[in-house]
Structure formats: structure tokens, C-alpha cells
Design brief:
The complex is a heterodimer of chains A (about 200) and B (about 550). With about 200 residues, chain A is mostly helical. Helix content of chain A is about 75%, strand content about 0%. Chain A is built from five helices and one strand, in the order βααααα. Chain B has about 550 residues and is mainly alpha-helical. Chain B starts with about 20 loop residues before the first helix and ends in a 6-residue tail after the last helix. The chains are: A mainly alpha (about 200), B mainly alpha (about 550). At the A-B interface, β1, α1 and α4 of A face α5, α6, β1, β3 and α17 of B.
Chain lengths: ~200, ~550
């Protein structure tokens, strides 16, 4: 390679351990904006419906609070266990890492199960209620995000526990945990905008 | 020691040489950012041409508004028109800039690779597959205004895939600019093109997911409904007729201008190099590009959020965003004048392209302000398509200038100057003529998506003919750019190209042309925004 111009100095190659985490943070910003826009549209149409003097949810449709709050609690617990997994890997505690990752995934499955039950008892039918398309769109997108976060936890967890990421080098797991926290926060917003305000 | 020197005391075999596959495997399985960038550039240019061809067909139909010359029915005109507009943005201009960013940003920040290279490569194939599905959906009578139910659903899903892929590639570029900068390269020392890609990418990442949200609602409604939303005039969210309306904010102000943000970066990068002078007031210029970017954030301008029966363009936010938009563009022109006054002006295709694109953008930003006057009643007229054409084609002019400038790093060879000049002049001329004609027709009340048989004022047909000529000019210019790029690809490696043919200021010119797989032999310590200029003239470092 030919020399072109002398620069100030040359330094040894730098270690850049946070690239995946920065990438995950930028990606999570995009995910958050998806839900901000979706909930914005939902609240806008809901606001117009109420301004017209009508009720938002049609007669016979209910979005019960106990079930939706329980989903929130489950996801909050999963956020704690996800962070626990990260801390355990950081400190090289393999047993706690397995336990925390397993619990996180279990809470994730529980949240999916609870959401499916909640939607089944809501009485919302897309072919009958235009509100259903909006609710199912938001709830379905959150479920897709939850599944993606679970997949990320499984993949990164396997790679971490398999030894690819060493103790103190948990960039990949930190990225998956960030995605997990993002979906928990997204659910918190959905809980308020869709289930609390109804 | 220079950045590209091999230390004399280092053994030759000290640096591992990355294994590379050849042929199809080399393309399909390659995670090199330059290959991914070239693929995005090639795909973007090809689909831009298809989009312009679609718009030209619609333009041909509009020359005579009394009857249908090319198409069997008016719905086909609407379908082709919608394909042209969506394609121009999501299949053309956006992937083109992402491709240029994928090649140039890692080189400018002194990185050995792009961040998340496999994600970026996967994003290209996802985008290509999604774009193919989108085109296929139109072929089976789907797409916006389509009549085949499955075809419409396929087009929504395909567009979602295109969008997600473009966002992943954008994340890769943005992360590179944030996390992979050379030691000493603080954010204020980031090369101005990389800065423009960083802020443009941020705007795209924060605004385009809103389109995804709209598509998700549309898909659920179309697949399992559809039911009319009373608050939206009884129109179902997933209705093929409503889909185009729901995505129209993408090619309307202010979001429209976000696809031209990198044009500012190209001008600020190219002009000081060709004028042989150091960029002054870098922080002010970076701030100007940042302000321009912030003003182009348009996710709030969706028809969903507009008050009932009131166009988005008449909202206070629209006025607040439109009025200052021209100022950063004038700042770029002022910086160019300053650089020219202090240096020795050297002309070249990149200079011509960058200046023309900024001038067209200044005109478009000014016209955008005129459109806010409610008494003119320009909302819903072809004024809006004229503005979109002018901005998107101006962005294409800047992209052509960027390709000409960075060709040694993209393809390993210089592009033909003559072909480059002709191409850029044709696209810029097309932007002015097609955009101007549509804007003028808008003042004569021609609707956005004009249907045959509607009554129009005298002279509109002549304006439509001029618009058709403008789009054809732009398409011809694009063909010349593609020819130039293809020739460079074919002749890559056959002739020796200087590492730094323009006497550039930033790190990409410190490596060979084309760059090796890992870009740089050594990591440079950067002490200013123009490290190579410092190295050439250290006495001028102030």
C-alpha cells in the first residue's frame, strides 16, 4: 500500500466493545418510534370518537384491567430477571446466569399466554369492530417484539454461556437485555394508553 | 509514521489476511461494507430508473387529459403513479444514499469495517427481496389502488420488509459513525458527509417506523376486516384507495426534505476540497445540517393527526418547520462562497453536482413556503408532486456527484468526466423542468393524481408535456450515471488509480483505491476535522 500523506501519529488498534450495544440502542429507538406512532394513531382516532359524543369501545367489548395489569407485573419481573442474567454473566456466575435466563424466558411465555387469553375474552372482532384492528395491531406488534426479544435472549444466552462472550465482555447480552427492557417499557405505555384509558 | 506505512520492523505475516470467496459466493456471502454498499447503489439506481419510467408513463397519459392513451382504465394510472412515488423514495433515493453511506462512512471515520456488517448485508438481501415482492404485487393487480385482495396484502407486507431492511442498514451506518470513529475523532471532528449521514439516519430511524405502524394497521384491517373508520370519513384503514393517502406524508414536506439531508454533507465535503481551502466554522455548519435535519422530521405530519377537514400543510407546525428550512441551505452556499474566496477554485463534476443540488433545494424550500398560503389552495394539487420531484431529483443529483467523487473508493476507478457532466446536467434540468411544470400545473388546480376526463384549465396539458419531458430528461441522466458506474465496475483493477486523486481532506483518501478488505493498515490518531490537509500543510492548522 502506498503512503499518501503523513498523519499526526499512528496508534495501536483500538478495542471497541460497545458496537453491538450502540447498534441495539439505535435499533431500539426505531422500535420505540414504531409504537409511539401506532399509539398516536390509536389515541387520535379514539379522541375523535369520544369528541363525537360516542363511547370508544363498542357495547359488549371489555378490556379488563386485572389481566392486563398482571401482564405488566409479569413483564416487570422479567425485566428484573433479564438484568439479573446480565449481572450474573458479568460476575461469571454460571448457575445464576442459567436460572435468570430461564426465568426471563418463562415470564415471556407467560406474558404471551396472558395476552392471548385477554384478547380472547375481550369480545373484540375485527370484522365487526373497527377498534379491533387498532387494538390487535398494537397488541400483535408488541407480541412480535416480545418474541423477537425472547429469540435474542436465547441466541445471545447460548453464545454467552457457551463461552463466546467472556466474563466482563457481555456486549451481546447487554444488547438483548436492552431490547427486553424496551419491550417492557413499550408494554407499560400500551397498558396506559389502551387498557387504562379504554 | 504515515497512516499507510508498513512498519519496517514488523514481520510481513503479522497481519492476518481476511479470507475472501470469489464469484457468486463472494457476492452472496460477503460482509464487506464496500460490497454491500455497491449492491445497494446498483439496486437503488436500477429501481430508481423503474420508478421514473412509471412516472414517465403516467406523465405521458396526462399530456392528453381527455382520454386514456396508454392504459385501459384510470385505476391503472393510479396504480402506476403510486408505484412510481413509493419506488422513488423507498426503492431508489433512500437505498442509494444508504449504499453510499455504507461505503464511505466507515472509510471516513477510519474504521476497518462497518458496524454490524452481517446485519447490513442481510438488510440488502431483505430489501431486494421485499422490493421484488412489491413489484410482483403490482404485477398481479395488487399494490396501492389494486383490486386483487391477496396482491394488496402482499404489497403491504413487501413494503414492510423493504422498510425494515432499510432501517437495519441505516442502524448500521449510524452505529458506525457513533461507535467506530478513530481515536481522537470527536463528534466535532467527524467528516461533514458522515455527520450528514448520522443526522439523516437518525431522522429516518425516528420517522420511518411511523410508516411501518400505519402499514401494520392497514394490513390487519385489510386482512381481517375491512371496516370503515367513522372518524376518517368511513374509509377502512386497509382500503387500497386509502393506502396511498396514508403513506403520502413520506413524499410531502417536511419529511420529503429528509431524503436530501446527505446532499448538504456532500456539498460541504466536496467544495472545500475542490476549492483547496479549509472548512471554517465547522461547528456552525454541523449545527446547520442538524437544524435542517430536525426540521425535516415529518412523522407528525401524517393525515391521521391532522384536524378533520384541515390539510396538514395548514397546521402551525407545518409553518414553523417550513419557514426556517431554507436557512441551512443558504448557510451551505455561504460556506461554499467562503471556501471559494479563500482558495483556488477548481471545477469538477462533483462541484457542479453539489452546487446544482443545493440550488434546486433552495428553490424547493422557497416554493414550500409559498404552498403554505391557504388562499392559494395548493393542497391536493400537483404542486405537491412537483415539489416532491424537485427535492428527490435534487437529492439524486447530489448522489450522482457523490458517486463521481468517491468512485475511486467505491469502484477503484475514476468515472468519465464528460458522461458525468451530461448525467448531472440532465437530472438537474429534469428536476427543474418536471418539478416546475407540476408546480405550475398545481397553481392551475390540477389534482395530485390526475385522472383522465377531468376538467382542467387551459395550458395544463402543455405543462404536463413539459413535466413529461423533465422526467424523461432525469431518466436519461440517470441512465448516464448508471452507464458510468457500470463502466467503472467493468474496468475495476485494470488501470492504476491514485489513492487521493482530489487531494482530499479526510481519512478515506489515506488508503488505497480501491481500499483493501480491512480498509486501513493502521489506525490513525485524528487531531482535526481535516487530518490529511493537516498532514499536507501543518502550518495552516489553525
Amino acid at each position: 500500500m502506498a503512503a499518501t500523506a503523513p498523519l499526526s501519529a499512528a496508534v495501536p488498534p483500538v478495542d471497541r466493545p460497545r458496537v453491538a450495544f450502540v447498534g441495539a440502542a439505535v435499533g431500539c429507538a426505531a422500535v420505540a418510534m414504531f409504537f409511539v406512532a401506532a399509539i398516536g394513531v390509536y389515541l387520535r382516532i379514539r379522541g375523535l370518537a369520544i369528541a363525537d359524543g360516542g363511547m370508544w369501545l363498542p357495547e359488549g367489548v371489555k378490556l379488563p384491567l386485572p389481566q392486563s395489569s398482571m401482564i405488566g407485573l409479569t413483564l416487570m419481573m422479567s425485566a428484573a430477571t433479564a438484568q439479573w442474567a446480565h449481572t450474573a454473566v458479568l460476575s461469571g456466575d454460571r448457575a445464576h446466569s442459567y436460572l435468570a435466563l430461564g426465568l426471563t424466558l418463562l415470564f415471556g411465555f407467560a406474558a404471551i399466554n396472558q395476552t392471548a387469553y385477554l384478547m380472547s375474552i375481550s369480545g373484540l372482532v375485527v370484522r365487526e369492530h373497527y377498534q379491533a384492528g387498532l387494538v390487535f395491531g398494537i397488541v400483535g406488534a408488541h407480541l412480535a417484539l416480545l418474541l423477537a426479544a425472547m429469540l435474542a435472549m436465547v441466541l445471545v444466552g447460548i453464545r454467552t454461556l457457551g463461552g463466546q462472550f467472556r466474563r466482563g465482555q457481555t456486549d451481546g447480552l447487554a444488547s438483548a437485555v436492552l431490547l427486553w427492557h424496551t419491550q417492557v417499557i413499550v408494554y407499560a405505555v400500551i397498558w396506559y394508553a389502551v387498557y387504562i384509558t379504554r | 509514521m504515515t497512516i499507510t506505512d508498513t512498519p519496517t520492523d514488523a514481520p510481513e505475516a503479522a497481519r492476518p489476511v481476511p479470507a475472501t470467496a470469489g464469484g457468486l459466493a463472494g457476492v452472496l456471502g460477503n460482509g464487506d461494507h464496500k460490497t454491500t454498499g455497491r449492491l445497494f447503489i446498483g439496486g437503488g439506481l436500477a429501481l430508481l430508473l423503474a420508478s421514473l419510467a412509471a412516472l414517465a408513463s403516467v406523465g405521458f397519459e396526462r399530456v392528453s387529459v381527455a382520454d386514456l392513451e396508454l392504459f385501459g382504465n384510470a385505476n391503472d394510472v393510479l396504480r402506476l403513479s403510486s408505484f412510481g412515488w413509493v419506488g422513488l423514495v423507498l426503492l431508489g433515493v433512500l437505498p442509494l444514499w444508504i449504499g453510499i453511506g455504507l461505503v464511505v462512512v466507515p472509510l471516513q471515520v477510519g474504521a476497518t469495517s462497518v458496524a454490524l456488517p452481517r446485519a447490513a448485508a442481510g438488510a440488502f438481501w431483505g430489501w431486494l427481496f421485499g422490493a421484488g415482492l412489491f413489484c410482483g404485487a403490482y404485477a398481479v393487480d395488487g399494490g396501492f389502488f389494486g383490486t386483487a385482495v391477496e396482491g394488496v396484502e402482499l404489497s403491504i407486507l413487501a413494503l414492510g420488509m423493504v422498510l425494515a431492511s432499510l432501517l437495519v442498514a441505516t442502524v448500521s451506518v449510524v452505529t458506525t459513525a457513533i461507535a467506530l470513529r478513530s481515536p481522537g475523532m470527536s463528534m466535532s471532528r467527524l467528516p461533514l458527509f458522515s455527520w450528514s449521514m448520522l443526522v439523516a439516519g437518525s431522522v429516518w430511524i425516528l420517522s420511518l417506523p411511523a410508516l411501518g405502524a400505519g402499514l401494520a394497521f392497514a394490513y390487519v384491517d385489510h386482512r381481517y376486516g375491512p371496516l370503515g373508520v367513522p372518524q376518517l370519513g368511513g374509509v377502512p384503514l386497509g382500503s387500497p384507495d386509502a393506502l396511498f393517502f396514508e403513506v403520502s406524508w413520506l413524499f410531502s414536506a417536511p419529511q420529503l426534505f429528509s431524503f436530501a439531508i446527505p446532499a448538504l454533507g456532500v456539498a460541504l465535503e466536496v467544495l472545500p476540497v475542490f476549492f483547496g481551502s479549509r472548512t471554517r466554522f465547522r461547528n456552525v455548519l454541523m449545527g446547520g445540517v442538524g437544524v435542517f435535519s430536525a426540521l425535516t422530521f415529518g412523522a407528525w405530519a401524517q393525515p391521521f393527526f391532522a384536524p378533520p377537514n384541515e390539510p396538514v400543510s395548514e397546521e402551525v407546525l407545518s409553518i414553523a418547520f417550513a419557514l426556517p428550512l431554507v436557512l441551512p441551505l443558504l448557510l451551505v452556499l455561504a460556506a461554499a462562497a467562503d471556501a471559494a474566496a479563500r482558495g483556488k477554485v477548481r471545477l469538477g463534476v462533483p462541484v457542479l453536482g453539489s452546487l446544482l443540488s443545493i440550488l434546486v433545494l433552495v428553490g424547493a424550500a422557497a416554493v414550500n413556503v409559498v404552498g403554505l398560503v391557504p388562499d392559494l389552495e395548493l393542497h391536493g394539487t400537483s404542486y405537491e408532486t412537483g415539489l416532491a420531484l424537485a427535492v428527490l431529483l435534487a437529492s439524486l443529483v447530489a448522489a450522482a456527484a457523490a458517486l463521481q467523487y468517491w468512485a475511486p473508493k467505491i469502484w477503484g476507478g475514476l468515472l468519465s468526466e464528460g458522461v458525468g457532466v451530461l448525467g448531472i446536467l440532465a437530472i438537474a434540468g429534469g428536476a427543474a423542468v418536471a418539478g416546475g411544470a407540476d408546480i405550475a400545473a398545481g397553481f392551475s388546480d390540477q389534482p395530485v393524481l390526475h385522472l383522465s376526463g377531468e376538467t382542467v384549465r387551459d395550458g395544463v396539458e402543455a405543462l404536463n408535456a413539459a413535466g413529461l419531458a423533465g422526467v424523461a430528461m432525469a431518466a436519461a441522466g440517470l441512465l448516464l450515471v448508471m452507464f458510468n458506474a457500470l463502466r467503472a465496475t467493468a474496468s475495476a483493477g485494470s488501470e492504476e488509480v491514485a489513492d487521493d486523486p482530489w487531494s482530499g481532506h479526510t481519512l478515506e483518501w489515506a488508503t488505497s483505491s480501491p481500499p483493501p478488505p480491512d480498509n486501513f493498515a493502521e489506525v490513525a490518531l485524528v487531531t482535526s476535522g481535516a487530518p490529511l490537509l493537516d498532514a499536507r500543510s501543518p502550518e495552516d492548522e489553525s
